[in-house]
Amino acid sequence: MKGNVNEECGVFGIYEPEEGQIAQIVYHGLVALQHRGEEAAGIAVNKGRVITCDKDLGLVSEVFDQERLSRLGTGNMAIGHVRYSTSGCSTKENAQPMLVKHIKGQLALTHNGNLVNSSQLRRELEEQGCIFHTTSDTEVISYIITRQRLVTPSIEAAVEKAMDILDGAYSLVLMSPAKLIAVRDPHGFKPLCMGRIPATGAILFASETAALAAVGAEFERDIRPGEIVVVEAGQVRSITSHCDTEKRSLCIFEHIYFARPDSKIDGVFANDFRIEAGKSLARNGAVDADIVIGVPDSGLSAALGFAEESGLRYEIGLIKNKYIGRSFIAPSQEERADMVHMKLSCVVPAVRGKRVVLIDDSIVRGTTSAQIVRLLKDAGAKEVHMRISSPPFMNPCYYGTDIDSREHLIACRMTIPEICKFIGADSLAFLQVDAARDILARLMQVSGDQVGVCTACFDGDYPTRVPEHYEKNRFETMEVST
Questions:
Q1: Catalytic hit among 9, 193, 346, 397
Q2: pTM, two decimal places
């Protein structure tokens, strides 16, 4: 994704029957989730009912070397997190897991998503005397859960009560001294799955199935929207009081872009969706051209689908420097612009003199797309016809994708022909919203009205109430306690 759209975070948790070097497993799980956030990483380990946490800014491999992992010690439960700051600034204090010490013990919490009522909840909590040390939604969630813990018989009961208060997107993996708990909000905005390692009997939770595979675990199932799954002494219990199939609203951009191609999100591999999206573009945006190329990485699958459906030859036309992170995750626009030039280069012989169909996953501001089109034309491409495997962004997202104003969205300011001229392409077409929904419904083997996805950023159909005032760093103007 290009421009000022950013997402998101990755969560991971594991219970092992026997105590061991569990942080090593979390490390490998987080590396598999690194694409979900490159700003910060953290791990918390539970040994003998005492939780130790370490976290910092940077990639997983930058934060944790062998010595630092060893200092976390052994344990039989652990959770981990990779972060992009969809709310709250990029500071070490906002890194996760968040470790809380309260009257009933300790709580370590990881969170993916954004609340739509976090500002209201924070204001109410501060009026009641709560002091905040961070500017993230996660601390709001931790306060709500720990306050409910004072009046409930168990941590899972506190989580259940908290869900009556929290509104928005939250996939959580949290850990008390005795329990590992996974939670998915009633809409199921963000993915969360469960797996097991047969050889050891370990039980795991992760944002994506790719993280399970990375540590030798077998996928068992997705956590249901609204479900609380509790692991205690190796036994698994499920609480479904907040499950409501009619509320289901998985973010469709998980399949379009966020998830790794080899991840299976709510029963559908992201790669399969992207290939079908490319085929749909070929049927509805056909063009007389010579070759099809994709923008690495998430545009490649759609490009393959377009080539297969159109009969055009697929070529590798752009090469990505694997040592440069995703341009959209760079916190500032200046950093993003610099990284585009650093991370992509053109395979000149593949495109010189050719009419090129260029497949990418989205256009947000349009500046990155313009740079890529220019890169191809400078390499000798005769024509560049751009096809986008998502619909145009028309609305802000309040659930964890970092678009907080329509002024950032080129599709809100320009028509498609105007966008085409702005980016310097010879033609431009987007995937239609109905086509995206139909593809997912077909792959899920359900009817269109049962697919249960959120497409609000495209069509404005929000599954929850919309906050009156919302911006990414909406707590930054508040005084933060230290």
A1: 9
A2: 0.91
